[in-house]
Amino acid sequence: MTSTEAPKPASRRTSPTHSARAALTVLCLGLFMIVVDTSIVSVAVPAMVRDLHAGLNAVVWVTSVYLLTYAVPMLFTSRLADRHGPKRLFVAGLALFSVACLGAATAPNIQVLIAARAIEGLGAALLTPQTLTLITHLFPDGERGRAMGMLGATSGLATVAGPLLGGLLVDRLGWEWIFYLNVLLGTGTLVMSLRVLPDWRPGHARRIDPLGILLSAAGLTLIVFGVQNGRSYDWGALVGPVTVPQVIVAGVVLLGAFVLSQRFTRDDPLLPLRLFRDRNFSVSALITAALGFSMTGMFLPLVLHLQTTLGLTPTQAGLLTAPMALIAATMGPFIGRLSDRVNAKYLLLSGLLGMALGLALVALRTLRDAPAWQCVPGLLLCGLGMGLALVPLNNTALRTVPPELRGTASGTYFTARQLGAVLGSATTSAVLQARSAQAAYLPLILVLLLAGAAAAILRGIGDPQRMPDAT
């Protein structure tokens, strides 16, 4: 069988082979690197300011440029995978990310560090969408939940492990080692990926949609740039008479033009709109944006309170969040198996409500300036909620998407999460400037509750009895 042959239907497959499990390990390692990198750098900001003799506004770009080059290209990179195969895009992204991390670790000044971080984001954009696409290809519907459980556990663990790893490395070895760690991990994962990932090429995309690429990239760039950097410009003038709100509005207009162009592009549009007819996928994309909003936004007020108000070191603050990571990671495989058997709606609803309640408990503890350990019950509840929500959400997102749209669906899904993360970071920062750290939790809780309502009102989402595998 050549690499371009269509895979056998999932219904004919048996349990996952050793090669499929080995491939899953590689995918989890790659995703762990990417997710950790989105949060680990924030811990090192003070050390970067000191060692590189840079201003705080310049160092903010170390995070901003990464989010920008990560979120914007994913629609395009997922479409490339439909054309050239997800393994090739995964390997290319992993290699680019690892080389860029080496450049960041050895950067002599802030300008080189920012450039390296931009290339890191591009590598992440190449790699990330391929994880869901390959898992959906490798595992049949009855076994896919377990695989998604491992992926969800990895994502949850990486999200909250970033500050802990960052604190330990910055305190003991220096900020450069947050990047050296990724070089070591990336090199090992790259060697493994060349050996165990299947060179499967769907061959669905016959051409590239240049107008769609231009409009989507321009629109997303303006929105992400405006939202991420609006605080730096006090939401006012950016260049001459051009203001940050005008830039964001222009981005929204361009995205509207992009959607309109996709409506009338009949031959291989960048984003086939029929994808959103799949209710499982549409609701999953909405909820993953809400999770990105809340999971990213919760760390800024928490870290500020723990370090500024309570006087904890970066390592101590990271250790406080470690139990949350542990419970989310431990639950992943179990919830993955469960999501193959029950309606994912109930798992999602329980997880989102658990996260909202956990955030409320944390906000109440910080409001009273209580000792740090009193935040632990709320954080554990957040970890429980993450474990319940992330795995069935990933499993549901691509469950009923036609095979020829899975690459595009994966890119769209992760783009939604990244946009949610950017909005969550910007919203929390804006609330922190205007009011107290406790008030910053309110929009996060509201977004989680709205996402829970969306999951609750839709009948049959992810129901394995009603939603057979689309392969």
TrEMBL record:
Keyword Endoplasmic reticulum: no
Classification via CDD domains: MFS_MMR_MDR_like (cd17321)
Residue ranges of domain Major facilitator superfamily (MFS) profile in the record: 23-467
Compartments reported by the entry: Cell membrane
Keywords of the record: Antibiotic resistance, Cell membrane, Membrane, Transmembrane, Transmembrane helix, Transport
Spans traversing the lipid bilayer: 21-46, 58-77, 89-108, 114-135, 147-165, 177-196, 208-227, 239-260, 281-304, 316-334, 346-364, 370-393, 440-458
Keyword Lipid metabolism: no
Membrane-protein topology: Multi-pass membrane protein
Database matches in Pfam families: MFS_1
Location (main, coarse): membrane
Highest taxon of the lineage: Bacteria
NCBIfam families: efflux_EmrB
PANTHER family named in the record: BLR6921 PROTEIN, MAJOR FACILITATOR SUPERFAMILY MULTIDRUG TRANSPORTER MFSC
Protein name: DHA2 family efflux MFS transporter permease subunit
